[in-house]
Amino acid sequence: MSFEVKVKLFIEEEQLLQQDDHLLIAVSGGVDSMALLHYFVMMQEQWGVKIEAIHVDHMLRGEESAKDRDFVQQYCETHHIPLHAKAIPIPAILAMENGNVQFICRQERYRYFQEMMSKTNANKLVTAHHADDQLESVLMALTKNATMNAMQGIRGKRDFAGGSLIRPFLTVTKSEIRAYLSRQGLTYREDASNAKDDYVRNRFRHHIVPLLEAENPKVTEQVHHFTKFLQEDNELLMALAQDVFSRIVTVINGNTYCVEIDALQLEPLALQRRFILILLNYLYKDSNTIQSYALLSSILKLCDTTTGYAEVHLPENFIAVRRYGTLTFQKKALVETAQYDLIVKPDEWMVLSNRKRIRLVERANVSQALLTNTAQLFYFNASQLKLPLVIRARKEGDRMLLKGMEQPKRISRLFIDEKIPLNERNSWPLLVSQANEVVAVIGVRMGMFFSTSPQSDDDTVLIVD
Ligand SMILES: Nc1ncnc2c1ncn2[C@@H]1O[C@H](COP(=O)(O)OP(=O)(O)OP(=O)(O)O)[C@@H](O)[C@H]1O
Fold first, then answer.
1. Could you give the ipTM of this predicted complex?
2. Is the peptide bond before 210 cis (omega within 30 degrees of 0)?
3. Residue 465, annotated ligand binder?
4. Where in the chain is the domain with CATH 3.30.465.60?
């Protein structure tokens, strides 16, 4: 099958192009992306699309990278293709931020791609990833601490910057691309770093892939089918995991995710894993960069039991905590610092940081307000407390009067006795009167003003659910 037919079939099969698409073609100047740009120059009318090119000079290889840019520019001028180009001082960024060169290049490159997608109103970014890249990616994922997401390799199409990123060359090999370019009589820029073994990808390319190709010259085709099957299976499993997510996750204040462990454990392990990946997607802007098999396993290990307290520290200051059968994901800062002072208004449910809900009602209205049978009722005489009550975090020296005790008990002591985790003590919700006396530690102990049975007809009731 010819190069052009192979590419056409893949584009049609994956529905990568539509009539009137506005494409931004990512061109480094190397063999793959020059072939990509040339392919679209030749085929733009046939596909009915509008094309522009985009290039990033990472300023990493001195004059060489400036020459890459000139090379791309010259081709674009000859073929009347608008070019968007930007030089990004990666060495200077690295000096300030530290980090992995390839990671920073990629991050900066895609930031510019994204910016230009919206400035030019393009709806698709096109890159020249090909079948050899696919094979290398799968092999790299297999040997790394990767999740099943990475094992599925590169996709032909994914969402990007309000449109999509498409890879029309994903089924053609590098040697097919090279042969196409030479048939077209075109040249390209050679990046000397590609020949070195410094990067993992290069080591796979130079040493592992040739062995596999010797075993089966069509190994890239085989990997293409393999990844496609995996992707299709995964789509189904992700949809099922999303259903589970909608059923068993409660989101508090838009930033704290609470999972009922019992309900999660009813699901097959394959869905539990994907459920956690979906959750990480909510927590992180780019969850792909933090996904690892080890992280997934340590989070799932928290769900082995529903009793006791355990936590896993996650990247970027997130934390997963298991307590009372609930698994909670949130920013550590939210756990450690209090964000109250909230006035407790009658007849309104308040959701607190310890995942309890409370509500104040007149005794006569209790039955109306009771929605669950897990709620506990605490009766008190409102005239004995200075209202309104307030929810706040602990303060130095806080104490509480308890029934049967002559001296008020220090809240810090009570936290220790009740085994409240250290990192939650500063945000644990306390109920405080206007006289600044702590009258309850919500979900832990109620002070002397509260009884579990009615004292009079006009009691006020605190419902804790
Ligand atoms: N400097 C660049 N300017 C414009 N496009 C580029 C540049 N570098 C890479 N690209 C585009 O990205 C494609 C993949 O390049 P490469 O394999 O170097 O990137 P990668 O980092 O491995 O992949 P990814 O972009 O998915 O992270 C290229 O074929 C080209 O389309």
1. 0.95
2. no
3. no
4. 230-334
In CATH, the number for domain 3-130+167-217 is 3.40.50.620
Residue nearest atom 7 in ligand 1 by C-alpha distance: 28
- pTM beyond 0.90: no
Query: Per this entry, what is the length of the chain?
Result: 465
pLDDT score at 70: 95
Based on C-alpha coordinates, what's the Rg of the chain? 30
The DSSP bridge pattern shows strands 249-252 and 157-160 to be unpaired
Which residue has the least CA distance to atom 16 on ligand 1? 129
Residue nearest to ligand 1 atom 9, measured at CA? 28
SS3 percent helix, strand, coil of the chain, rounded to 5, is 45, 20, 35
Tell me the torsion sign for CA atoms 281, 284, 288, 290: negative
| Single-letter amino acid, residue 187 | T
Query: Would the pLDDT of 18 be above 90?
Result: yes
**What single-letter amino acid sits at 270?**
A
Taking the CB of residue 336, how many other CB atoms lie within 10 A of it?
A: 15
- pLDDT confidence of residue 323: 77
H/E stretch holding 377: strand 376-380
Sorting pLDDT into bands at 50, 70 and 90, what band is 340? low
**29 annotated to a ligand binding site:** yes
- Say how many Å lie between the CA of residue 343 and the centre of ligand 1: 54
Better pLDDT: 159 or 255: 159
Top-level class of domain 230-334: alpha beta
Q: Which residues contact 189 (CB under 8 A, 6 or more apart)?
A: 28, 29, 30, 34, 67, 68, 71
Using CB atoms within 10 A of its CB, is residue 276 exposed (0-12), middle (13-18) or buried (19+)? buried
Domain with CATH 3.40.50.620 in the chain: 3-130+167-217
Give the count of beta carbons closer than 10 Å to the beta carbon of residue 85.
18
- Other C-beta atoms within 10 Å of 445: how many? 17
Q: How far is the CA of 222 from the centre of ligand 1 (A)?
A: 24
- Residue tagged 């890159």 (tokens): 127
Q: What is the pLDDT of residues 391-427, one digit of tens each?
A: 988 888 899 999 988 899 999 999 999 888 887 888 8
